[in-house]
Each structure stands twice: as structure tokens, then as C-alpha cells.
Amino acid sequence: MLERHELEAFLTLSEELHFGRTAESLRVTTGRISQTIKKLERQVGAPLFERTSRNVRLTALGQQLCDTLRPAYEQIGAGLEQAAIAARGITGTLGVGFSSLWSGDLVVQAADLFRVRHPDCAVHIQEVLLGDPLGPLRSGKVDLQLTALPIDEPDIALGPVIFSEPRALMVPDVHPFAQRETISLEDLADATLLPMAGIIPDYWLDHHYPRRTPSGRNIPHGPPITYWQEVLSHVSFGQGVSVVAARGARYYTRPGVVFVPFSDAPPIEYGLLWRAGEDTARVRTFIQIIREIHPPVRRSGRP
Q1: How many other C-beta atoms can be found within 10 angstroms of the C-beta atom of residue 206?
Q2: pLDDT of 163-211, one tens digit each?
Q3: b/e map of 130-169 (b: 16 or more CB within 10 Å)?
Q4: Are 198 and 132 contacting, i.e. CB atoms less than 8 angstroms apart?
Q5: What phi and psi, each to the nearest 5 degrees, are found at residue 158?
Q6: Which residue(s) pair with 150 in the sheet?
Q7: Residue 102 contacts residue 132 (beta carbons within 8 Å)
Q8: Rounded to whole angstroms, how far apart are CA atoms 303 and 12?
Q9: Under the phi-then-psi rule, with left for phi > 0, alpha for psi from -120 to 50, and beta for the rest, what region is 227?
Q10: What span, in angstroms and rounded, lies between the C-alpha atoms of 8 and 279?
Q11: Through-space distance between the first and last CA atoms of the chain, rounded to whole angstroms
């Protein structure tokens, strides 16, 4: 019989792939985690992790066990959370923001289900402008938002990566790139990239609008633009190009604009944010509903 602490140790280690971080997460010693995993491996009869001085990774058997146990573990946790919510009652108002139209689709879908389950709680939905991605959250206009990452701020809590989207380059239809099936990050050195302007963290801008290619070539930047509709206009009139989620081709149909997928760029990840220390019952419930509708994706090798 698998005990709860063994299950938690195994699943947490399968996420962290690091004994120290696992111990810190579960608030036990590293030795305790090591002993628990060894005991579990003896019970199974085979190694579940491959350990070296540099890294830890799941064996094929360990991955199989993880994939089998995790859904049941999360279902139990969700059931307990739903029971606790039902006991407390969910009332008041919840503000939810989104930073892209495809994020908004998921937020609206989750809000509809939230209202059915918790009719005494109102949900207000609003778009969060790319020029001020954290302003509404910090000001309290929204309590939770689904937005493009990365976000690394001390006053903002980051939840799971809910989904990711392949990147594309939005170019004028007269641009040489428009005739190609794919482009690479190196190709950005031969175009003028149009970045966003506003109250935006530098690391976010560097991630989405890099200044150098992977080989170190300079990427020309045009004047920063405040509103997304302006980006569409600038691109259509041949004043530059812009990085965007490939799905944008279905949402931003416009004459004179072509979306060309990247062959080597990492996907754009979208995750949930809320104010640190303010994960209220309303926030946790809405997050759980989003996870039901769209289970979180694996990020950097972690579930």
C-alpha cells in the first residue's frame, strides 16, 4: 500500500527532478526524501529515478508510474478542494483578466462554468493591455489573469502554465519572408522588429522582442508601439514585423499581413497570475476550473 507521504515525495520529485528542491517543497530533509524514494523503489522492485552527480531523471518505469498516479492524485485533491469550497461558500465578485483573444476564449469558458457552480459569485472579465500587463492586477481591478509569460515579480504569484502556442512572425505580404514556409530566429537580423511600449518588464520584452539572434547578430528595432491594433497597421504598411502566437492568424485577419511560422523559436507560454498572498477561495476555485477545462502543459520537462 502506497502511503500519502510516499506518493507526494515521488510525484514532487518527478516534477522537480532535484532532491533538495523536493525536500524544501515538502518541508522535510533531503535524507528523508532519499529514504522514501529508496523504500518505494524496493516496493516496486526496480529503480524509478536515474541519479548522477549532475542530474536526476525518471526511468521509463518511473515515468509510467508517474503518468498513472498523477491524475488520480490530482482528482483526489480537486475533490477535497471542491468539498472545502462547498462548505465555505463562494460569494462576492471575482475579476479575471486575459492578455490575448485566445486566452480570453478560455477565461470566458471557465467563467461560464464558474457561474453555474457558484451563482452567488459574480465574475467580471476584462482584457489586459499588453502595454501594462500587470497594472490591473496590482491595482485590484482583476484578481486573476491568464497572460503571456515570463513573469517574475515578487508581488505576483505564478501558477501553472496552462497552454503554449507556437511562434510566428507577422510580416507585410510584400516582404521577402512572406513567401517562405518557415523562418528562423537568425532571420530576425534581416528585418525591423516592432516592440511594444509601456509599463512592461525588461525581461519580458527581451524574451518576446530580442535584440540579438542566437549567434549574436543585431536585430533592428523600430519605434515601440503602445496598442496591438497599431502593430497590425504598422506591419500592413510595411514599417516592420512583429513576433506573435501563430494562432493569431485566425484572430487578426487583415489585408496585407502574412503570418510565417518559426522553425526554431520556443513556444509562447501562457500562465495564471494573481497577487502574492491573495489566493482566495474564489481565485483557487477559478484556477481549478481552468485546469479542468485545459489541463496544464509540461514546461521545461516538468508537468
Answers
A1: 13
A2: 999 999 999 999 999 999 999 999 999 999 999 998 999 999 999 999 9
A3: bbebbebbeeeebbbbbbbbebeeeeebebebbbbbebbb
A4: yes
A5: -110, 125
A6: none
A7: no
A8: 10
A9: beta
A10: 22
A11: 25
Instruction: Pull the grid cell for residue 225.
Output: 508601439
* Residues 263-283 pLDDT 10s: 999 999 999 999 999 989 999
Strand ranges of the sheet holding 242-245, from the earlier edge strand across to the other edge:
242-245, 167-172, 257-261
Phi and psi for 270 in degrees, rounded to 5? -125, 130
Angle of helix 4-16 relative to helix 30-44, nearest 10 degrees, comes to 110
* Residue keyed to cell 503554449: 164
Contacts of 50 (CB under 8 A, 6+ apart): 56, 57, 58, 59
What pLDDT is recorded for position 54?
82
| Rounded distance between C-alpha atoms, residue 109 and residue 287, angstroms | 12
106 contacts 162 by C-beta, under 8 angstroms: yes
Query: What is the identity of the amino acid at 253?
Result: T
In 3D space, the residue among 205, 204, 167 whose CA is nearest the CA of residue 187 turns out to be: 167
- The single-letter DSSP state of residue 275 is E
Domains and CATH numbers, the chain: 4-69 (1.10.10.10), 89-162+268-293 (3.40.190.10), 167-261 (3.40.190.10)
